[in-house]
Amino acid sequence: MVTTLDEKLESAYQEVLRRNPGEIEFHQAVREVLETLGPVLAKYPEFAEHKIIQRVCEPERQIIFRVPWQDDQGRVQINRGFRVEFNSALGPYKGGLRFHPSVYLGIIKFLGFEQIFKNALTGLPIGGGKGGSDFDPKGKSDSEIMRFCQSFMTELYRHLGEYTDVPAGDIGVGGRELGYLFGQYKRITNRYESGVLTGKGLSWGGSRVRTEATGYGTIFFADEMLKARGDRLEGKTCVVSGSGNVAIYAIEKATALGAKVIACSDSNGVIVDHDGLDLALIKQIKEVERRRISVYAQEKPSATYLENGNIWTIPCQIALPCATQNELNGKDAEMLVKNGCIAVAEGANMPTTPEGVRIFQDAGLAYGPAKAANAGGVATSALEMQQNASRDSWSFEYTEQRLHQIMIDIHRDCHETAAEFGAPGNYVVGANITGFVKVARSMLAMGLI
Ligand code: NAP
């Protein structure tokens, strides 16, 4: 079932389809936002009059570049780099870099589009952007990763700056990659400009809690959704997809709040451990040894490994998709509902297909969309920028407290806005409208930009 759009929104959507052929993830992300904006245009006709929707769907700037590098055998390799600077009405472009073979312009544009509204929700002064490459870091040596990152930054640096565009990590880009990228930026510009990248190491301008922030924030958001229903996370059984940065710290915080996480995954399979996942072992396998999650089952007798398994078939009360886009479809959603799932909070970006979202909403689950539920990562990036600007370094406790309060505030804003616009409990409506209105008002105030 596809929700119909009102006339003005439908024509804006058709224009997006026509101007961006083949970019299906971007179309999906735009449609999801437009489906919720009908009541906004009715309340604020000036947004339609000034073509804010059409403007917001068109990136301010799109950069595509060649990334040549040499592998360990001395062979020349060529990848494609992207940076989409989508919207700077609220602050410098801000959003991560993704290195994954599936990356093309449509993926970067969907992520950049989502980022605009997510960043607005944090209440911090950051615009929206995203970038990356079709480079696959899997199986590459550290030297190859370094040469690739240096070549990538040799082109990208001219578009960056602490007041212009501030990248961070995403899939395939963690502390190691950010180190090489920052080193090359510093070398080319001859400036120690800490605020140009976030997710930096603690000894060179990084913020405490940034590594943990997206996963922790997703759990804080899930807990708020449950509290709004007179319930809480403590004692619940959870399933977390993925075993990367977001998944690991979602597992950590869920466990700390008294939930039991029984499964996680990677793109090859799923591990299930009904004793509750051993996080120290997962960190050792994924963060230190950079191996596959199947190793967990070899080390733990209580665990089973399901090669090519579907994690959403495992009964749980809370589902936390933390891997990638469209990893949870309509059938998976039906299965989760049937098995007694009561809440879904998205650590990954757009992990649930539109059909899956409708099934969750029709079944009355607490469904926290990515824009709201995973905003803790970028919020803490903005806190890193604050620390860099004041040449300060905050404690773990203080930074986590700031993150926690931001997630509480995002939940409250989404909850209140959803009720105001006649859709109580609908966090998709709440998140899209709260984020969009902030951006639209700022764009109007700045004239024709
Ligand atoms: P990451 O550290 O690279 O981890 C990604 C994880 O997802 C890996 O375990 C990966 O498994 C798994 N994965 C990827 N594609 C998969 C697929 N098709 N099926 C099953 N598993 C798959 O990346 P991350 O930073 O955790 O990002 C995960 C998600 O969170 C992404 O959607 C990202 O955009 C979103 N996000 C991240 C942040 C952040 O601060 N890092 C902030 C907001 C949102 P393999 O190793 O097998 O590929």
From TrEMBL:
GO (cellular component) term, any one: cytosol
Residues at which NAD(+) binds: T214, N245
Record-annotated site: Important for catalysis: D170
Family, as annotated: Belongs to the Glu/Leu/Phe/Val dehydrogenases family.
Function: Catalyzes the reversible oxidative deamination of glutamate to alpha-ketoglutarate and ammonia.
NCBIfam families linked: PRK09414.1 (NF006929)
Designated name of the protein: Glutamate dehydrogenase
Organism annotation: Allochromatium humboldtianum
